[in-house]
Amino acid sequence: MSNEFVKLFELIIAASLINNFVFTRFLGLCIFFGVTKRMETAVGMSITFTSVMMISAALSWLIFNHVMVPLGITFLKIIVFIGIVAGFVQASDTIMRKISPSLYHKLGIYLALISTNCIILAVPLLNAGEHYSFLESLAFAFGSGIGFALALIIMASIREKLELADVPGPFKGLPIAFIVTGLIALAFTGFSGLIKL
Amino acid sequence: MVDMHSTLSDVLGIMQLSDIFHFLVPYAGVGGGVEAREQVDFMPLLKFTLLFLTGIATIFGLGLAFAAKKFSVKIDPRVEQVTDVLAHAHCGACGYAGCEQYAEAVVGNPDVPPTLCTPGGGRTAEAVARITGKKAEFKEPIFARVMCQGGWNKSRKKFAYEGVQDCRAAILAGGGDKACRYGCVGYGTCSRVCPFGAITMTGDHLPYIDIKKCTGCRKCEAACPTKIIEVLPASKQVLVSCHSKDKGADTRNNCETGCIACGICVKVCPFDAPSIENNLSKINLDRCRVCGLCVAKCPTKAIRDFIPQRSKASIKDHCTGCQICSKVCPVNAPSGELNQLHTIDREKCIGCGICTARCPVQAIDGTFNAAAVFAATAKKKPLAA
User: What CATH number labels B145-305?
Assistant: First the structure.
């Protein structure tokens, strides 16, 4: 039992720090650069992203292991996972608008961005490829979400400071943001070897 | 699953298709999740694929349709119309968080006026009023005015500042590097916060405001650490462009164009608009008629005329020769005999517009206020008649 918990904890650490989606796999950069201009949007995006990630990973796991594997049509997983995420995001958008308008005003704008994000697609695909159990899938999705949130918040706080820095003309804006991302990625390689799976 | 398989085979078996297609092809997919197989049955694969995709599409379609129906939110269509006509600057000049919030408020709450969208201007106010059925009152445009003319070449510095190039940061270092602590710091914070790109920094490190782009959203006013930017009505174009409350001698020492509170403007003004308080002249905007006499007399050029070039007065043919203009003129430009057509000496005229405003028959044209004066009398006349 304890061994299982250790495994789950390791998965979370591995997904958030060692194999951070932004800094080691370089996925989801579009949203990453889009919402990190201000801390407020970065935090909103992080919360929405992590919750959507976990729910869509759970849904995808159920459909993959209980429908697609028995039918032998696992090669369809990319299309199906995209469909599942988009459908779920659309449904939650509609439902949230009715049930909690205040939450919708805060986080609604991020939902549409998320539905086509590549991390959201990568997590169910990796879950399927690695034969994770249901709990492990959830842990992996949670770790990925935390990792993405960490990346967004680190980057937003740096970019808010960067506004005031005297950046050479050609590097203003996105170029310096890319350079900073590269530097943080270098720092994140320090986490490799933290645990052995 | 086995049941489903056999049922499907039965259904398709009637058509005897399965026999035709029942051959083995190399497995096409990537092997994630299942053990990779060398060969695969093409027919069942096709069947399950079609069945599965149709099934999942149907489920999602029905689910979404159900959700849309069950959780539908009634939105006043006018909110969307109002949102469309707003400026979409999300500047917050209206006092709401963003354009959508203002649109909701103006549609839902009868007390919210339709004229609050400053960047949108008159046209937006009209459109919002039309959609919401409210009355739009004319609102004079407002512009940001920089109340400091002491650029880096005209003012003295206390020390050399080499920190972050931002006014808000510079002010933390001993109140800024300028000797005058009331003036423009000159690191361009306002030009960076302006959502409309209306502010540029001049070579002398003073903000220049392009009034064609300025919408009066007050973002720069809020960002400026020395509060040197004031947002004022467009028609008030003569302003004391200095905030220095230092004693006259200190101000003169710090800056070439600071207000030294000499009081000449108070003496020269025909309307008693300026007054000296705390070593600083302040023009009462309700009294000021923008004549510009104080601008010409100010010894340090601290009073600024925002009318770039004042056009001179000229007398029209229906002058009755009442001589009022020659009495009110501060520079004695008009001349002429009683009941004769008057003339104005264009050399002497400074374009203050006082005579235009006072002429009983509106016979003086050409000054900056002529159009406004004529419009005002044209409005009054039908009422009187």
Answer: 3.30.70.20
B48/A71 Cβ within 8 A: yes
Pick the CATH number of B314-384 from 3.80.10.10, 3.30.70.20, 3.30.160.270, 3.90.320.10: 3.30.70.20
CB contact under 8 A, B32 and A90: no
Angle between helices A39-63 and A77-99 (to 10 degrees): 120
Q: At what angle do helices A77-99 and A101-114 cross, to 10 degrees?
A: 160
Task: Check for a shared fold between B145-305 and B314-384.
Answer: yes
* CB-based contact, A194 to chain B, within 8 Å: no
Backbone angles phi, psi at B225, to 5 degrees: -70, -25
- Residue B265 in contact with residue B290, Cβ under 8 Å? no
Q: What is the ipTM of this complex?
A: 0.70
Overall pTM > 0.80: no
Chain A residues near residue B30 by CB distance under 8 angstroms:
75
Rounded to the nearest 5 degrees, what angle is found at the Cα of B383, between the Cα atoms of B378 and B385?
A: 95
Domain boundaries, chain A: 2-191
Interface probe with B: pick from A94, A96, A166, most Cβ of B within 10 Å: A94
Determine, for residues B57 and A83 on separate chains, whether the beta-carbon distance falls below 8 Å.
yes
Give the number of beta-carbon pairs within 8 Å between A and B. 78
Q: Are A68 and B44 a contacting pair at CB < 8 A?
A: no
Class level of CATH domain B77-132: mainly alpha
Structure tokens at B45: 């694969």
Q: Which residues of B touch A (CB under 8 A)?
A: 1, 28-34, 40, 44-45, 48-49, 52-53, 56-57, 60, 63-64, 67-68, 71-73, 164-166, 169, 192
Cβ atoms of residues B359 and B320 within 8 Å: no
Distance, CA of B250 to chain centre: 35
Residues of B in contact with A163 (CB under 8 A): 192
pLDDT per residue of chain A (197 residues) written in tens, 0 to 9: 578 888 888 889 888 888 888 998 888 888 888 888 888 888 888 888 898 899 999 999 999 998 888 887 888 888 889 888 888 888 888 888 887 777 777 777 777 778 778 888 899 999 888 888 999 999 999 999 999 999 999 999 999 888 878 888 888 888 999 999 999 999 998 888 877 65
CB contact under 8 A, A164 and B71: no
Which residue ranges make up each domain of chain B? 2-70, 77-132, 145-305, 314-384
